[in-house]
């Protein structure tokens, strides 16, 4: 009886927490689809009587919003590919026992985990490299982290060393062994790290505020923050055209939905890779 009571209370509390977590998302979606006349007439709406796609139609017709979506997509795709290439190649090199300077490289990798240069040195470095107002300023510094490199290295260490030895006997070099043998075997790890990198690049916000002054380079998160602070949303105005603009609240909510939609759609299908990513490199043998 006590076990059944515990399960009942536990299920009720978890259900309540799930409802509290889901409600803000539900409210944002409802407001984004609510007709403008009803939105202006009521202060609080849970079940709109009339649905409308005007906010989405207006957002997707503006150059600023589409440009920011393109910038975020570029960061997510190009940044993820570059990050996986750097992380996997460096990790594979560290997993080779005969690599010259291996201990020094391991020490330098650990130092990047223990010590961070801070915001100002990073900004000075980006400025000296001439990367200000460039999307590459958001990609290059975040292409690899010491923690991910070490996890990937442990994953390569867990693979049988005989694979590399047999490839060397057949005349296969280290680069070809990495591309033809090790990378296909590490697809689960690459998928997990790829998802981590993609989510990180899609949600780039603070570094974009630091390095991007040109509004045409803003990713979707920065534009969304500017929309939430700017009540008039003049940055989204279509020049030379008279278009009936939906209410500001509806536009903001629609922008939030569009900003989170790609990640929300990806998570249910690839969630197992995130769970597996937490175990990458944790067990050797």
UniProtKB/TrEMBL annotation:
<keyword id="KW-0472">Membrane</keyword>
<keyword id="KW-0813">Transport</keyword>
<dbReference type="Pfam" id="PF00528">
    <property type="entry name" value="BPD_transp_1"/>
</dbReference>
<comment type="similarity">
    <text>Belongs to the binding-protein-dependent transport system permease family.</text>
</comment>
<keyword id="KW-1003">Cell membrane</keyword>
<feature type="transmembrane region" description="Helical">
    <location>
        <begin position="177"/>
        <end position="202"/>
    </location>
</feature>
<keyword id="KW-1133">Transmembrane helix</keyword>
<feature type="domain" description="ABC transmembrane type-1">
    <location>
        <begin position="69"/>
        <end position="270"/>
    </location>
</feature>
<protein>
    <submittedName>
        <fullName>Carbohydrate ABC transporter permease</fullName>
    </submittedName>
</protein>
<keyword id="KW-0812">Transmembrane</keyword>
<feature type="transmembrane region" description="Helical">
    <location>
        <begin position="12"/>
        <end position="33"/>
    </location>
</feature>
<feature type="transmembrane region" description="Helical">
    <location>
        <begin position="138"/>
        <end position="156"/>
    </location>
</feature>
<dbReference type="InterPro" id="IPR035906">
    <property type="entry name" value="MetI-like_sf"/>
</dbReference>
<feature type="transmembrane region" description="Helical">
    <location>
        <begin position="73"/>
        <end position="92"/>
    </location>
</feature>
<feature type="transmembrane region" description="Helical">
    <location>
        <begin position="104"/>
        <end position="126"/>
    </location>
</feature>
<dbReference type="InterPro" id="IPR000515">
    <property type="entry name" value="MetI-like"/>
</dbReference>
<feature type="transmembrane region" description="Helical">
    <location>
        <begin position="251"/>
        <end position="270"/>
    </location>
</feature>
């Amino acid at each position: 009886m006590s076990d059944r009571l515990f399960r009942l209370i536990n299920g009720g509390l978890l259900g309540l927490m799930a409802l509290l977590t889901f409600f803000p998302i539900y409210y944002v979606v409802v407001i984004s689809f609510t007709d403008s006349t009803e939105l202006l007439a009521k202060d609080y709406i849970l079940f709109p009587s009339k649905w409308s796609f005007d906010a989405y139609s207006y957002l997707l017709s503006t150059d600023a919003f589409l440009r920011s979506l393109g910038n975020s997509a570029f960061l997510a795709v190009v940044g993820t590919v570059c990050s996986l290439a750097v992380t996997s190649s460096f990790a594979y090199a560290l997993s080779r026992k005969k690599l010259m300077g291996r201990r020094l490289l391991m020490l330098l990798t650990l130092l990047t985990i223990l010590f961070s240069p801070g915001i100002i040195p990073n900004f000075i470095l980006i400025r000296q490299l001439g990367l200000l107002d460039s999307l590459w300023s958001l990609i290059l510094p975040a292409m690899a982290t010491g923690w991910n490199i070490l996890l990937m290295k442990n994953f390569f260490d867990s693979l049988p060393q005989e694979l590399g030895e047999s490839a060397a006997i057949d005349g296969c070099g280290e680069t070809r062994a990495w591309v033809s043998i090790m990378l296909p075997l590490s697809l689960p790890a690459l998928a997990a790290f790829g998802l981590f990198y993609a989510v990180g690049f899609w949600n780039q916000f603070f570094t974009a505020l630091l390095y991007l002054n040109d509004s045409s380079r803003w990713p979707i998160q920065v534009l969304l923050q500017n929309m939430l602070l700017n009540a008039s949303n003049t940055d989204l105005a279509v020049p030379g055209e008279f278009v009936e603009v939906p209410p500001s609240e509806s536009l903001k909510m629609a922008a939030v939905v569009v900003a989170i939609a790609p990640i929300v759609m990806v998570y249910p299908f690839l969630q197992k890779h995130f769970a597996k990513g937490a175990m990458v490199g944790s067990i050797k043998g």
